Amino acid sequence: MNLKNLCDNVVQIAREAGQYIKSQQKTIHNIKIEAKGVHNYVTEVDKNSERFIISELQKLIPESGFIAEEQTITRQSDTYNWIVDPLDGTTNYIHGLMPVAVSIALRHKEHIIMGVIYEIGSDEAFWAYKEGGAYLDGNKIHVTRTAKLDDALLATGFPFYDYSRLDRYMDLLRFFMQTSHGLRRLGSAATDLAYVACGRFDGFFEYSLSPWDVAAGSLIVEEAGGKVADFQGGENWLFGKEIIASNSMIFDEFVQVVKKVMYE
Known about the structure:
The chain is of the alpha+beta class. The protein folds into two domains: 138 residues, 2-Layer Sandwich (Fructose-1,6-Bisphosphatase, Chain A, domain 1), CATH 3.30.540; 115 residues, D-Maltodextrin-Binding Protein, domain 2, CATH 3.40.190. Helices cover 36% and strands 27% of the residues. A hairpin with a 4-residue loop joins strand 7 and strand 8. The radius of gyration is 17 Å and the shape is globular.
């Protein structure tokens, strides 16, 4: 399998889906919005975008399976599975805000081998494939070289349904407010990870996430020279609903702080 050629095709699919998403935002007041759960929304645009993405990806690897947020298809495979978020940042989207992103990853057995994120507002495509480096619109990208958390700008997200860990999380936010360059909350985990990869953020952490939120971005971060883990420094970040991503220089300190506050 030629991952570079495959990645080029997936980037084009993500761009086309993103163009459709952007074209519909001006008429959002006419679009049906459903609540999947407390403060968790889906629109007709999410579903239409997912259907388009899946139909195009099936042409690239007909036997592949899918782990897709809106579950317009539920087929999975023992070998290749696409992990798809057709519109990451739906709450932003329905309020006329950005960033909003399309996120597509390819998983071969237990390993992510390709990741593509298209951020619609800035018209930027981020991508990576295993051992091929990470790119933004064709230009190679790299994580920052910030050496201390005290000098780091961090991104995070706020839980919208699982408040069982909120007290500890607020303690963690308080700590980073006092001991970093600052915290930013953009509303799109895929975009946060892409921005870590290209050096706009030094690190990112969040819980209550799903595989489609982090699959593509995690590989892009790693291929850009960064590291990814769960809150305890382990490897259960894809399905474990929590993730830390940063450059390699602050990573150990970052994990140590998050683990201590959230688990000890």
